[in-house]
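The protein record quoted for completeness.
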Amino acid sequence: MRKLLWSFSLLVIIVVLGGCSSPSKTSGSPEAKDVGYQIVENGGLSDKRAVLDKDNVKKIEDIITDVKWDKTVSVDKRSKEDAVFWFIDQDNKEGQKYKVWFNETGSADVQDEKQVWSVLEGKDGETLSSIFKLNEQK
């Protein structure tokens, strides 16, 4: 009887822990298939476009996963963002949108839908910028 009770308790713990785990750290979609984006052109947003290259989608996911969001920062951006992007899941559903401003120094300021800010320093800002620019040239 004790063995049965012990086995049942262990099963309940495994189910509870499994149900509490998150499939992805990105605020977009778990296992993103693509990244949709729009570039600011002539004061407005371009037509919707997509990053389809799996390596580039993974790079963007990794960048957003590693972002240190700062809820205490309030940034007053007088200029329109340079791009807006979002993750697209396996069911073609769009996830949370992110606005990004690319800076001359290679960094990028990113804002999520909840108005929370982060700065992508150096390599991450440059990588994000280059992915969108390379995609534009195709």
Q: What stands out?
A: Confidence is low (pLDDT under 50) at residues 20-29. Strands lie at 34-41, 44-45, 49-51, 83-88, 94-102, 108-111, 117-120.
